[in-house]
Amino acid sequence: MILHKMHPLVQKLANDSIMGNFYNRSTVLYYKHRYFKQALDYAIASEAFNEKINNLYNLNSARIDIGNIYYHTKYYDKAVAYFTQAKDYYQSGKGYNHIQWYISCLYSLGKTYLEQDDTAALQSVIKESEKALPRLKPRDRQFETAYLNYLKGGLAFLQKELPAARQFLETALPEIKQNGDFTNEHVVYLYLGKILWEQNNKYEAVTYFNKIDSLFNEKKFLNYELRETYDYLAAYYKEIGQTALQLQAVENLNLLNQQFEKEQKSITDRLHNELETKKIETERSQLQKKLNSNKRTYTLWLVVAGVVLLLLTVYSYRKNRDQKKLKQKFNELLDTATEEKHQQKNDVLGTEALQEPTVEVPRQPEESAAEITTQTEAAPQKNNISSQQVNEQRLFRALEKFEQEKGFLKLIKAEDGSLRALKIEDLVEQLATNRTTLSHFLNTHKGGFTTYIVKLRIKQMTIDLRANKELRKKSVQELSELYGFASLRSFNIQFKEQTGLTPSYFVKELELRMAEEKAGLEAENKIKKE
Asked: Where are the residues of the annotated region Disordered (predicted)?
């Protein structure tokens, strides 16, 4: 509703940046919430606007949005046309962002060809992707390789090469899950289930199909490519004589069909010719405006100028207000970072103060985490408290030590010798507990493993940026890699969610603040010398 009410005001502003940003944000918001008709309207408007101002980068970004809408409403040929247009543009660019978008377009084409069962086109896209991936930075290459393996797994499945398909998909799955991409995660589950079904291992196949059913029960929607899950479930329950479960699968399939019909109802009748009509209307409107502009009188120009001046005043006021809010958030974050830095120093000093005096005695082996657990869990007999409470206290202390030692920043050596970011399995091993216990504990007290680690990394980053001048010279991409984030996009989103600021804004303001403090100290020292 807010975006809808803002539209007339934004249209009156003579600011291309604001207008383009409004169209793009509106498209993404409506698309994310599956309002495909409204998303299409804004995507079309964005395409026309960026074409008018000759912003080719954003123009092709809008074409990707249009292609995605066509994909989700099963107009695959039109989706291919728009993905191809965008791919050709980004392929010709020289910047790193162009390379990333180029590879993203290849993936979009690949998933569309997979839905069309077009093995020849899918093979061509996979080969082109393999040639392009070496141009990426290592972390981005690892990320995109997972999605390429997903496409390879789909191709192998279409070619009936089931063992190879399973290997590709299982290789892709961990990175896709780490990225929080639950849609493609469950598409992988669907293919793994279909592979097992084809191999007549139906019982194990159903475990994957049930994962998708659980997602539907949680989210109340699924993408169309996951629909066939319920065909398999209904067939399986019919085969084993589970009528109630068969009925549930059929009812869920019916609910899905209703969802798809509802999503398509508002745009199916006009989606195939919407773009052509919009372009004709846009061109006609532009010509009409050009003719009318020649007939405007001096008085009308004064009125328009007055309105524009008023709008600019309102815009300037709101912009200043927003800048004040950002400044306030920055100051709060900086104060928090300073307090955390002092707290960390106090923690170190406190730890040193509690240490026993050094004496010359034979050194005993340190107690293992398991021994500590055994000793701690004996406490209920003395203190009359539950073992769960004792275990929670132990985990609180263990995590406090983990935070003091900055274990959330340490890289883990994989079996192949490469380094990777911390996973919950690593923390389970370090704390000598099990995944179920730790996961429940983190969900209850820390908001979950991912949220917990992200908050620690961002908090530590703000502390380090405050203290380290050289660190502030690094790019946002370098900071995201240094502090263990999956991708630049993920880093920007999570930093904004946690702080209300973008990383680039925080670093820029911090650099200005440090320069001001330095100038103030120099002036103060100069006065003292005089």
From this structure: 339-388
